[in-house]
């Protein structure tokens, strides 16, 4: 055992700020309220239902994660956020419009959800072409937008008498942007670009910058650039605020990070992996724009290459053909269908096939991720951790990591890293499974 990290207590109330009060955000908020009211269970949430082993197996010291580390209780969470639609000014109306949860459940939570009002958003339709906003902030510069967001954060904390706050991006996918411009290389050049209203700086970046300036940990649930570039890494270190991202790992990519490690562990070859999706929610509408789809495609395509390492296993994966498609199909709403055809090769190169048809509710899978990220990002902050929180890669399709490292995509490696981080925070030995076996002296 080692000395535990000094962690500030989870006192007072924790604010959870959400850019984008749409399907994911409302499903998350309504779900937490349902759990608090005793009419739902937090299935899918590690912080609420997960356990981890402590010490050697014969010690039998397994513990619930929420009993092991000092997390905020659900009763102490306060919700707020921004949205672009005046037609749905509160969480209840937005949840009804999203159509994810049954109306009968929402009606039981109407009083709580109606009290949660969204704020006008910082938004630029140039970068999310398929959405038509009806309520956005009247700002004319990047600095004006940042000041308005910072004012919102401060007012939200003061109005609700909050001890702390975190921000989890649940907004739509913006058009593709690579961090190859000089303005993203360091904080000095980036802040000059802010002053000059450089069009390369998208709205999600402004939210991330405002959050860090207000000492609010920031996690990015979309594949946007957002906080994933050197200048933002520098800022998070300078201000000692945690960041994490990006792109919630929900349906099809979740399956890939479960299956691909298994194929690699058994040394099974893969000739091709074709993935297609149909979905009809706001996310599907946004991704129907090729420039927004490009952002998502890049996020999805990097998974297999890192797990399988074709350069190290050319006989098994050197000629892997990986294709991803997303199709907007309005009748499905939030009921996404992810279909995969996998051509694998076994002994003596004999071909076999695996087909997966995952009919899932995207927001149902994302909601517990939002909860866990909110609680773990706050835990990181109270523990004195800042900069990139790579131990939370478990939750992301395209995990942010230090520039000199490659991201970890294997779900089981990610989970081990998360659990060992929690053990380390609390002064427990890390689990390596190298203890004495039955026949050792």
Automatic annotation (TrEMBL):
GO terms for molecular function: inositol-3-phosphate synthase activity. GO terms for biological process: inositol biosynthetic process; phospholipid biosynthetic process. Residues 251-363 form the Myo-inositol-1-phosphate synthase GAPDH-like domain. It comes from the Archaea. InterPro entries: Myo-inos-1-P_Synthase, Myo-inos-1-P_Synthase_GAPDH, NAD(P)-bd_dom_sf. Pfam families: Inos-1-P_synth (PF01658), NAD_binding_5 (PF07994). Belongs to the myo-inositol 1-phosphate synthase family. This is Inositol-3-phosphate synthase.
């Amino acid at each position: 055992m080692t000395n535990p990290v000094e962690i500030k207590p989870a006192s007072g109330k924790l604010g959870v700020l959400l850019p984008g009060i749409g399907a994911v955000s409302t499903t998350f908020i309504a779900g937490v309220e349902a759990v608090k009211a005793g009419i739902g269970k937090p299935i899918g949430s590690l912080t609420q239902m997960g356990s981890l082993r402590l010490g050697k197996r014969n010690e039998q010291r397994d513990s619930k994660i929420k009993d092991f580390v000092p997390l905020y209780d659900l009763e102490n969470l306060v919700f707020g956020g921004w949205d672009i639609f005046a037609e749905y000014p509160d969480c209840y109306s937005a949840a009804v419009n999203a159509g994810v949860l049954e109306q009968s459940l929402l009606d039981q939570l109407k009083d709580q959800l109606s009290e949660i009002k969204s704020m006008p958003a910082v938004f630029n339709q140039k970068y999310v072409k398929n959405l038509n906003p009806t309520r956005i902030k009247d700002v004319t510069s990047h600095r004006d937008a940042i000041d308005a967001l910072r004012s919102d954060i401060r007012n939200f904390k003061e109005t609700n008498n909050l001890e702390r706050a975190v921000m989890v991006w649940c907004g739509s996918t913006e058009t593709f942007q690579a961090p190859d411009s000089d303005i993203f290389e360091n904080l000095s050049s980036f802040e000059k670009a802010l002053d000059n209203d450089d069009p390369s700086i998208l709205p999600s970046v402004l939210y991330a910058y405002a959050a860090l300036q207000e000492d609010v940990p920031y996690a990015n649930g979309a594949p946007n650039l957002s906080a994933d570039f050197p200048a933002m890494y520098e800022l998070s270190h300078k201000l000692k605020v945690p960041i994490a991202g990006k792109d919630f790992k929900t349906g099809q990519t979740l399956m890939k990070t479960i299956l691909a490690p298994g194929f690699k562990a058994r040394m099974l070859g893969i000739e091709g992996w074709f993935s297609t999706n149909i979905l009809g929610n706001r996310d599907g509408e946004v991704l129907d724009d090729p420039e927004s789809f490009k952002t998502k495609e890049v996020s999805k395509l990097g998974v297999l290459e890192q797990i399988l390492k074709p350069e190290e296993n050319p006989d098994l994966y050197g000629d892997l053909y990986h294709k991803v498609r997303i199709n907007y199909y309005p009748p499905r709403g939030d009921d996404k269908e992810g279909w995969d055809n996998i051509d694998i090769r076994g002994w003596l190169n004999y071909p076999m096939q695996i087909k997966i048809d995952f009919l899932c509710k995207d927001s149902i899978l994302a909601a517990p991720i939002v909860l866990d990220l909110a609680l773990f990002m706050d835990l990181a902050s109270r523990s004195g951790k800042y900069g990139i929180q790579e131990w939370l890669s478990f939750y992301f399709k395209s995990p942010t990591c230090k520039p000199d490292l490659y991201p970890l995509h294997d779900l089981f490696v990610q989970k081990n890293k998360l659990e060992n981080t929690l053990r380390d925070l609390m002064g427990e030995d890390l689990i390596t499974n190298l203890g004495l076996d039955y026949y050792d002296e």
